[in-house]
Design goal:
binds NADPH dihydro-nicotinamide-adenine-dinucleotide phosphate; Ribosomal Protein S8, Chain: A, domain 1; binds pyrrole-2-carboxylate; 7-stranded mixed β-sheet; 13 helices; alpha+beta; 3-stranded antiparallel β-sheet
Length: about 350
């Protein structure tokens, strides 16, 4: 039997409280990190705690930040995270975003000045639970070479989409616009395992399967020029357009990559009912027909693996290995002195 989800949330929340985070920040962080561990998304699970603590210890994330929502009644809502982590900032803005999208058809949540370490699927899933479709994106820090280039410039820039499915798990995809998340390369380095061909180039600009060389060099965009362009779009929409840092700026501001980057995030929400009004067909029923057709070919939907892992974790608990358990105990005991 593994660790119950609520037990692990208390343990992780306790680590962040010990590190000086306000209770609302610590609880939001614990929910996000434990959700990733529960859903078998190891690159953004308990492994991330030490990086968050390093960022607080270095004075790059404010543990006492209280995010503030501003709403001028338009389609653009803003949360100023005030230098704190993104999780509490998102939780503050999400209900207002869903309501505004239902009222207007479409609305945007801009989060500014947040330290962002998490996967984006918890955010789009939260919005689909509120009955809206959602698209979330953010820069990270310069660690990916544009296609045809030889040095880190773009971030691993994740993008996630969610579509509500009445009576079932939502349709959700969430991926880095690099071939894999940087967290995956870090986990390979920690395990002393080579990364697959095609993920990265070393500092000399040549291909490498050595994760340490990849971390010192640059990762590659997924899908060649197509991923490179989507990643660039994210720098524009969720960096320049919202008046926040792009990935090269975030890396320069941080002065290294052993901590987590501070920048902004853009989350869009759509009301399928409002968009489809007056047109033939129910958008949700039509979506189900499409999902059935995909599954009918023997393909799987994105997030199916994750939701299966969640079902297992809720029944059997979350399995952490001995090393992970002793790391949690160490972080809980020593707090910021552990990093
Ligand atoms: P993956 O490549 O592991 O997965 C990408 C998506 O594709 C998932 O939704 C996954 O669903 C789905 N998928 C995988 N295989 C299939 C398949 N055969 N058929 C259908 N769907 C499939 O993700 P990445 O490594 O690119 O990213 C991992 C995480 O890192 C993301 O959650 C992302 O948000 C996060 N990240 C965060 C950053 C930040 O700055 N905050 C930066 C970069 C990444 P499933 O999960 O069910 O397998
Ligand atoms: O895994 O690429 C990544 C990442 C960057 C910031 C948070 N996660």
């Amino acid at each position: 039997m593994g660790i119950a989800v609520d037990t692990l949330e208390r343990t992780v929340g306790g680590i962040f409280l010990q590190a000086g985070l306000l209770p609302a920040q610590a609880a939001a962080m614990a929910r996000t990190i434990v959700a990733a561990e529960r859903d078998a998304c190891k690159s953004h699970g308990v492994y991330r705690i030490a990086g968050c603590l390093r960022t607080v210890k270095a004075g790059k994330a404010d543990p006492a930040a209280v995010p503030a929502l501003s709403d001028d009644g338009t389609a653009i809502l803003r949360v100023d995270a005030k230098g704190g982590f993104s999780c509490a900032a998102f939780e503050l803005g999400a209900p207002a975003l869903a309501e505004r999208a239902k009222a207007l058809g479409v609305a945007a949540l801009v989060i500014n000045d947040c330290t962002h370490f998490s996967a984006l699927w918890p955010e789009v899933e939260a919005l689909t639970d509120m009955g809206v479709a959602a698209l979330a994106m953010c820069p990270s820090y310069a660690s990916v070479a544009p296609t045809g280039g030889t040095a880190a410039l773009l971030g691993t820039n994740p993008i996630a989409f969610g579509w509500p499915r009445p009576g079932g798990h939502p349709y959700v995809f969430d991926f880095a616009t690099s071939v894999a998340a940087r967290g995956e390369v870090e986990l390979h380095a920690r395990a002393g395992k080579a990364i697959p061909d095609g993920w990265a180039i070393g500092p000399d600009g040549g291909p490498t399967t050595d994760p340490e060389q990849a971390l010192d060099g640059a990762m590659l965009p997924f899908g060649g020029h197509k991923g490179s362009a989507i990643s660039t779009m994210i720098e524009l929409l969720a960096g320049a357009m919202i008046g926040d840092l792009t990935s090269p700026e975030a890396r320069a501001e941080l002065g290294g990559m052993s901590m987590l980057p501070r920048h902004g995030e853009l989350v869009l929400a759509f009301s399928p009912d409002r968009f489809a009004a007056g047109r033939p067909g129910d958008p949700f029923a039509r979506a189900e027909a499409l999902f059935d057709a995909i599954l009918g070919q023997g393909a799987r939907l994105p997030s199916q693996r994750r939701h299966a892992a969640r079902t297992k974790a809720l029944a059997d608990g979350i399995a952490l290995n001995d090393e992970e358990q002793s790391e949690l105990a160490r972080l809980g005991r020593l707090g910021l002195a552990a990093v």
